[in-house]
Amino acid sequence: MTTNLQVGEVFSNFALPNHQGELVQLSQFMQPGLLDKKLGFLDGYPLILVFYRGFFCPRDRQQLSQLVQFQQELTVNYCQLATISTDSPLVQAAFRAGLGAQWTFLADEKREVIKQINILDETEGEYAYRAQPYTFVLKPDLTIHKIYNGWFFVGRPTIDELRLDLRTVMQTNSNYSYEAYNTPEVKQIRIPQQEWFNNQPLGTNGLPVARGIISWFDFKTGNGAIASSNVEEDIFFNFTAIPGEGYRTLDRGTKVEFEIVTSKFGLSARNVQKLKQDVINL
Questions:
Q1: Within a 10 A sphere around the Cβ of 165, how many other Cβ atoms?
Q2: Which fold does the domain 185-274 belong to in CATH?
Q3: What predicted TM-score, i.e. pTM, was given to this entire model?
Q4: Which pLDDT does position 231 carry in this prediction?
Q5: Closest Cα to residue 136, out of 16, 32, 6?
Q6: Distance (Å, rounded) from C-alpha 280 to C-alpha 213?
Q7: Scanning 3, 95, 117, 228, which has its CA 20 to 30 A from the CA of 192?
Q8: Which residues, at least 6 apart from 46, have a Cβ–Cβ distance to it below 8 Å?
Q9: 3-class DSSP state of 73
Q10: Which backbone phi and psi does 138 adopt, to 5 degrees?
Q11: Which residue, 211, 218, 224, is CA-closest to 255?
């Protein structure tokens, strides 16, 4: 029995509990990040979706161990990975921790998705009533780019094959080229070095200047938000809007002044600088 899906078809946008028991919909993995949305890059990112038999299968352990070696690369290339089996969330969490995996494990205990795509193993033996080991590479809109049938281990994708698949998909994204970032609209949010290097005063470029307090900053994504009396909602910013070299951060509660950028995608802050004064009245 082989899957009834084919390359070019759209994968079902199903929802399953993850290893923490939280319900997750498949399309959530492909969503563009906060910075992408502010810059108008709405394509999203591809997903590697791996169906495996269970923690007890030596072939699955080998495949997932290889993916552990790949996960750091996935973090910096913005692509996503998720694995699915019929094991419970509790079992998945234990297996995930033992592997040292950082991606999401999904539990299809009722075999609903596995049956829907026709990959339920109906043979006798230790793997009966489990998922056949398929790997799907999905485009951001859930279209199937590649299908790997891993019934025999040689049918499972290598890291090099997955990298090529992801590259092929990513090359169609609107933000894949350098030129996409070298535009006035993007430079309004990602502050060019020549502006802060020459100590250009805030507001010199005609943008309004405001003061506020860092309400949150995510050190993993480099995104944050500022609470200000000038506007009702928090104002988004990315670390690239902070003057300086390398990876810049700001702690929650830091008092700042900044320029406000208004676009069709909402408000953003740029040229975010620590305020020298001790008091901000919000």
A1: 20
A2: OB fold (Dihydrolipoamide Acetyltransferase, E2P) (2.40.50)
A3: 0.87
A4: 79
A5: 6
A6: 8
A7: 228
A8: 30, 79, 80, 137, 138, 139, 140, 145, 165, 166, 169, 170
A9: helix
A10: -110, 140
A11: 211
Q: Maximum CA pair distance of the chain?
A: 74
Note the pLDDT tens digit of each residue in 215-227: 999 988 899 999 9
220: tokens are 């993993």
Query: What are the pLDDT digits (tens) for 214-269?
Result: 999 998 889 999 999 877 789 999 999 998 888 899 999 999 999 999 988 889 99
Nearest to 165 by CA among 65, 26, 48, 13: 48
Among the listed residues 177, 26, 220, 214, the one whose alpha carbon sits nearest the alpha carbon of residue 112: 26
Q: Which amino acid does the sequence have at 218?
A: D
CA distance 169 to 157: 16
Which CA distances in Å does 192 have to 196, 204, 242, 274?
7, 14, 10, 18
- Residue type at 271 in one-letter notation: N
List the structure tokens of 147.
């299908």
Average pLDDT value for the chain: 92
Q: Where in the chain is the domain with CATH 2.40.50.140?
A: 185-274
Start-end of CATH 3.40.30.10 domains in the chain: 15-179
Two tokens, residue 4: 């009834």
3-state secondary structure 204-238: CCCCCEEEEEEEEECCCCCEEEEECCCCCCCEEEE
> 């950028």: which residue's tokens?
261
The one-character DSSP state at 158 is P
CATH number listed for the domain at residues 15-179 = 3.40.30.10
